[in-house]
Automatic annotation (TrEMBL), chains A, B:
The gene is phykpl. Gene3D superfamilies: Aspartate Aminotransferase, domain 1 (3.90.1150.10), Type I PLP-dependent aspartate aminotransferase-like (Major domain) (3.40.640.10). This is 5-phosphohydroxy-L-lysine phospho-lyase. CDD domains: OAT_like. One of its GO terms (cellular component) is mitochondrion. It holds the Pfam family Aminotran_3. The keyword Lyase applies. Keywords: Lyase, Pyridoxal phosphate. Belongs to the class-III pyridoxal-phosphate-dependent aminotransferase family. The lineage of its organism: Eukaryota, Metazoa, Chordata, Craniata, Vertebrata. Its cofactor is pyridoxal 5'-phosphate. It comes from the Eukaryota.
Amino acid sequence: MQITISKAEVQFFIWEKANQVWQERWDREEKVDTYIKVKVNMRAQKLLTPTNFFDYRQSCRLFYSDEPVKIIKARGQYLFDENDKRYLDCISNVHHVGHCHPSITKAAAEQMDLLNTNARFLHDNIVMYADRLAATLPEKLCVFYFVNSGSEANDLALRLAQQYTQHQDVIVLDHAYHGHLMSLIDISPYKFRKLAGQKEWVHVAPLPDTYRGIYREDHPNPGQAYADTVKDLIEEVHRKGRKISAFFAESLPSVGGQIILPQGYSTKVAEYVRSAGGVFVADEVQTGFGRVGSHFWAFQLQGEGFCPDIVTMGKPMGNGHPLACVATTVEIAGAFTANGVEYFNTFGGNPVSCAIGLAVLDVIEKEDLRGNATRVGAHLKDLLTKLQTQHQIIGDVRGVGLFVGLELVSDRDQKTPATETAARVVKRLKEEDQICVSTDGPWENVVKFKPPMCFSMEDAELAVRCIDRILTVTFKLEKEDI
Amino acid sequence: MQITISKAEVQFFIWEKANQVWQERWDREEKVDTYIKVKVNMRAQKLLTPTNFFDYRQSCRLFYSDEPVKIIKARGQYLFDENDKRYLDCISNVHHVGHCHPSITKAAAEQMDLLNTNARFLHDNIVMYADRLAATLPEKLCVFYFVNSGSEANDLALRLAQQYTQHQDVIVLDHAYHGHLMSLIDISPYKFRKLAGQKEWVHVAPLPDTYRGIYREDHPNPGQAYADTVKDLIEEVHRKGRKISAFFAESLPSVGGQIILPQGYSTKVAEYVRSAGGVFVADEVQTGFGRVGSHFWAFQLQGEGFCPDIVTMGKPMGNGHPLACVATTVEIAGAFTANGVEYFNTFGGNPVSCAIGLAVLDVIEKEDLRGNATRVGAHLKDLLTKLQTQHQIIGDVRGVGLFVGLELVSDRDQKTPATETAARVVKRLKEEDQICVSTDGPWENVVKFKPPMCFSMEDAELAVRCIDRILTVTFKLEKEDI
């Protein structure tokens, strides 16, 4: 029996060489390229059961794992597969100023050709870059630590908070994800609920989701009400004889389902946390660098009066290059270094990373990408809101700038998550329209948009038109099923 | 009073903007370039005391912090400052195939211009790269996780070990350093002794240093004797009712003082650790990719029969680009993914990182850099060994390939660390000869060589000649002091 196995299986099969017998079969097969379809099926051969094979390949889940795409080039908001088929990319927030932006490539190549040492040597780039970042932040956030990933940034933020406060406990939001490192799994309910469980020093506050959370749009002051849940949690922690080092939250919870924090929330939380001797950490890894349009940082949506004690940044910072950062105050940095133990990061803040970071900031400004995010994001949200009047399944449309969520529910009153429909929308948008979106939220029923910042009005219109068509057909089919 | 402050102070002053008053002064000063010497001295003004200012800037210690160099370009094993003064680089192991190697820059720029997505999309580069790495390793190490730094790799290795064994405890070598993340400070005696202290699940085995450790050259079988210390430690751990997840060690302890593990050590330790249900993790972040010359990995120096369960790699892997990896077995990877929680790393294994990794492997082969490391490393060690006959202060010369240490002692019998002389050698080599070396070891008395792999015979001869001159003068001066 000969069955064709998918490209995904072939890739992970080779990558992990899960079974030597299979490697030998592979070697004997004619290969036209790395992904030629192997003409034998491991399941049919019973050498590997589907279950244990799946175990091996799922440590990193592919997009569209049933029929993955092999993208070989990209430009702006477009991806191209090996047959030159074009896909509209609505999800790559990492490729912030557009895939393969020539200014970024040029800056990287020029600096790579010149010098790429480390932060133990003096270099202009790190100084200029820190200065440029400082100009986007409130004055008191003026100390910068350059690292290689949002995870490294959040790990360092946790160290800084604990060292400064000399307290241990952390409050996080429900469903939060702050990174893949051991310390961060501990503070990520999205992960620890499936793994080692909740540590005694970690406390989970309700997600301030005004659509389906404990306080909703109809509440007179959801910001205050949700902040009070943090206050209550702090009191509970104190009753246990424990002390808060930090409140740790994304400025717009992403994995939690593209949530917009209610007004007043962060200011109040910061007040409560600081009264308890803790600090406020704003995780801007997904949301920073102008994605929200009106402001450079999403935490700034909470008003001029609000300033976190620590801000972490990552994904969009290097447009795909591993570059991340922690910004904090002189007081916190002082407490961190006062013990005399240095922090050194081999690649962090090297001249190439900083050259790329500077080039990203230049492109954001020169191409007015914040302005674009404001205009296109508003248009996208308008179109989706109009769509909501035609499709009962659209429970909520929310977002700011190019950070937008479309929450699907099978019942508007019960807000029953329409998880399967959301998955179908993602799959059909890819197959029928070559549009890449994905889902988030605890029930994976929130279709999310966080495209490269050069996303255009036409792109927004096309995506909404296709969603309209897919929902119309789906609705029609579901009716027929009944 | 007007005193010139050093470039280092200016850089860290701006970078961290330690004091707003000083920022304002800076703004008022005429600037000719980023490092123009500010004509006012903060110490004289008493706005910041030397102590608290030093606190702020020392979170990353500069090389030559008294008079740091501003390097603006580099090529091969040479660095050039802003006055085009050339320095010979004997320490940049990260820039493995030479600074700014044109093949690496070309590979990076070409791939950056084409595509830089992530491991959720199929791409040839990740498959080809994993295949190439697999070819350098024993067959059973065939699963690869790509990450951004040696620290991320070691954190993941710890997770893998704990998940696979379902045990918690870790044995590490004394003075070891495995990275800057919270989880790694816990397993790095070099760091935790100065910080939070030793956790109950971490156990420290003696450093198998046959020069100044508990068993020395004169011992009939130091490999077995040191391995037995690990066996004893395991028994102690078991008596406490605890269980070993991993023995974690650099294949050649670097921060510990350029230590060469005695023959037989790793094989025996692996046997004991596996009997206790644990795994052997070889940290090759400093030592991998052919640095030892005769082998691609330093753990291979322990003989064909020895194979770790997990290997971590980093620094030299991307020649300065943030690229690192964990290699392990199908069994360990299977246990890791069996819980159904995926591991995703935003930048890890992206097409650009993999293109760079592939280019590094190509250059190592094409330029026979392993052969060069063998030849030049042997010559360097020979020359240093000859020097030892002329200078009583040279207590030990050890190394393999281009990983060489020169241990200075003020008394050969007592092996009293000559820490100050070592610092003087580093400083004078830089000032008088423009040669960059640095020190390692618990007493910072081991002058270390781990240069780019293109280091030449002439470079080795120059470095040794200059050390000879400096030691001669120092010795003469010290005699005069007496």
